[in-house]
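re the bet — no i am not wrong, look at it urself. input seq straight from the record:
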Amino acid sequence: MTEIAGPRIVSLLASATEIVCALGFEQALVAVSHECDFPETARVRPSCTWPVIDISKGSAEIDSQIKDIVARGLSVYRVDADKLKQFRPDIVVTQTQCEVCAVSEADVVEALADWTGTRPRLVSLRPDSLDDIWRDIRAVAAALEAPDRGETLVEAMRARMAAVAARHGDAPKPRVACIEWIEPLMAAGNWMPELVTMAGGENLFGVAGRHSPWMDWADLAAADPDIMVVLPCGFDIARCRAEMPALERQPGWSDLRAVRAGRVVLADGNQYFNRPGPRIADSLEILADILHGPTGRSGGRGWLRHGPGSDILRADPARR
């Protein structure tokens, strides 16, 4: 879409930044969060947030840090209130879906507590399902006084995804386990069960529209999925692969159907599956290639088979 002028926008959510840009308001972005990295030009925008945990650690230690902070009633992220004021935003986009995944509405409200003058409008997103993603895109577009652009973007995404579902509606449905965190184990919920169904699979764990649930290894082993897709929240493929020994040490790992068949897949959850924005359509195309074999529509990006002979560079050619 053609860039247009608009209000001064601060986006504190990676998916919201993608929505703003897809709607044609990239030039109106005055600041973003520390996690906003797509499109590439978003990386040059100043950031006004940071995590209070060490995100370079492994999944077990990250989980421990988060639980400790939450138990003390603290926030996982900080918003630089002084910077936020300096940017003089008209609109701030945040979220209420998950307080441990990104800056929350409560964090922003606290940062604006002593704001003087006209406060910026808060647009809070809550994407628990695909329908919620469409609603959130429309909400951002409405706040930017461009509802037609929102509708056009939503309809284009839905058309792409409907085409994927139609291609695989009659295909055999592999039983799929999507893993959203490795240590401790968590299954993928929210929109992921819907994506699995649309891609022509049978989702084994997690319920559409509900938060991702913790799971026991014994339950995963008992389900013995045909395909296992490992897509940890916030991890790229390289970090995902570094965490795989925690799964491979589990009893009976090598006996799992997916492992024996070479159908354990590492996916870029950070860029695609965990990010409820315009690239959720890309995520569905990637997932369909994972389940039914590469078609070329996903461009070979965003995923990698786990096992001997796999090549990390194949994960996402666009991000090498």
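see?? The CA atoms of residues 74 and 104 lie 12 Å apart. told u. also The radius of gyration is 20 Å. so pay up
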